[in-house]
Amino acid sequence: MRRAMMQRMQFSLLLLILGISASALANPNDYPEFAQKKVDDDISVTFVTAEEVKQRLDVGTPQALVDVRKSSSFERQHLPKAISIPLQSFPERYVEIPRDTPVVLY
């Protein structure tokens, strides 16, 4: 049972990453078949803009920032308090993502 739930979570997170990495400028309303697709009832996937993330940062709204770029890109520059989990290592490291707060993958 637990393994099936973990597999659903991995699949959901993979879909989220693919959706985000496809285009940083994509309008989710242009891709309703992907952007608002519910993969798992326990995991909600919502597209947010960079402006929305900045507003949340500015007012101190809790959110986990996960940088999925290569480590070298993260080392050069990243958002404050972000953690680095490159896409290549995501299947092994997704368990490091906090589950008690909204998560922003970028």
Tell me what the structure shows.
By secondary structure, the protein is mainly α. The protein has a single domain (2-105), classed as Oxidized Rhodanese, domain 1. It has helices at residues 2-22, 32-35, 50-59, 71-76, 90-93, and strands at 64-67, 83-84, 103-105. It is globular. The mean pLDDT is 76.
Element layout with pairings:
Layout lengths: L1 H21 L9 H4 L14 H10 L4 E4 L3 H6 L6 E2 L5 H4 L9 E3 L1
Parallel strand pairs: 1-2, 1-3
Approximate strand percentage: 5-15%
**Total domains, how many?**
1
CATH architecture: 3-Layer(aba) Sandwich
What share of residues is helical? 40-55%
Order of strands side by side in the largest beta sheet?
A: 2-1-3
Task: Name the overall outline.
Answer: globular
Q: Nearest-angstrom radius of gyration? A: 14 Å
Number of H- or I-type helical stretches: 5
Q: What ranges have pLDDT less than 50 throughout 5 or more consecutive residues?
A: none
Structural class: mainly alpha
Q: Quaternary status of these chains?
A: single chain
Reading off the top of the CATH hierarchy, the class is best stated as: Alpha Beta
DSSP, total strands: 3
N to C succession of SSEs? HHHEHEHE
Largest sheet: 3 strands, parallel
How far apart are the termini?
30 Å
How would you summarize what this structure contains?
This protein has five helices and three strands; from the N terminus they run αααβαβαβ. The N and C termini lie far apart (30 Å). 42% of the residues lie in helices and 8% in strands.
